[in-house]
Design brief:
By secondary structure, the chain is mainly α. Helices cover 67% and strands 3% of the residues. The protein contains six helices and two strands.
């Protein structure tokens, strides 16, 4: 398969559907997603809108990802790391270096933001030296 050098709505859809199909099969992440998402036919278009808003500036996503993730119990850095590994792999399979890098960079920023929000939600605050204190 030839990799795409431009980002289109169709390729964002391919990225999202391919990635989440793989995630659902993952031994660490699959159970987390399956326990939380009742309707994949509703969830996946939301994720397409989310990534379209990021990559194409469509403003088609109007959800609130922090509260949705903060309510999940037991999420650890391992979950986010696995998510990032899978997302990076899928982005690199579909896109050439430059568009893949855009998705990967934003995915890391999003993961960092979600981890921080979840830590704050659970009373783990950054200390003065950058270490986390509870």
């Amino acid at each position: 398969m030839e990799k795409a050098s431009i980002i289109t709505p169709e390729l964002i859809e391919k990225l999202v559907y391919t990635f989440y199909d793989q995630i659902r099969q993952d031994e660490l992440l699959g159970p987390v997603f399956e326990a939380e998402i009742n309707d994949w036919d509703e969830h996946l278009p939301k994720m397409v809108a989310f990534w379209s808003s990021i990559a194409l500036k469509t403003r088609s996503y109007n959800g609130r990802p922090v509260p949705a993730h903060a309510k999940l119990e037991g999420l650890t850095s391992a979950h986010f790391d696995r998510w990032l590994i899978g997302f990076e792999k899928t982005a690199r399979e579909i896109f050439t270096e430059q568009p893949a890098a855009l998705f990967i960079s934003r995915a890391h920023q999003i993961a960092d933001s979600l981890k921080m929000a979840i830590d704050v939600q659970h009373g783990i605050l950054p200390g003065m030296d950058g270490a986390l204190v509870s």
